[in-house]
Amino acid sequence: MATWADVVRIVAxxxxxxxxxxxxxxxxxxxxxxxxxxxxxxxxxLTRAGVEPPRGDxxxxxxxxxxxxxxxxxxxxEVYFTTPHFDGYAAVLVRLAEIDVVDLEELIxxxxxxxxxxxxxxxxxxxxxxxxxADSQ
Length: 137
Known about the structure:
It contains 5 helices and 6 strands. It is α+β, with helices and mostly antiparallel strands. A 6-stranded antiparallel β-sheet has the order 1-2-3-4-6-5. The longest helix has 15 residues, at 101-115. It is globular and about 45 Å long.
């Protein structure tokens, strides 16, 4: 089970990141993760799709592309989901209470790799050989 404190800690360990507004994290000026409470239209769409709208804290996180988003949702629907509002947008919604902290760290790091300046990504990857350069695509 992850918490907002975990998100803050993970983001703080990544270069050039900051919390520009409460629960709105960016790398430079690019949004990478943010709190995303469900709107009424989100709840209606989920209910129509036969999905119980989640309760609790929801984190939206950038992903490399929609294929990654759809794979996460398909593989772990108890953790990841999306709504029609995010159709065509490379971001996934996360039930914060359901995600493992290690998985959260991987997800946020991937968001950072997607949004960070390419030169900074290269420097970061050179310092952390355990992360695949393919993750930055």
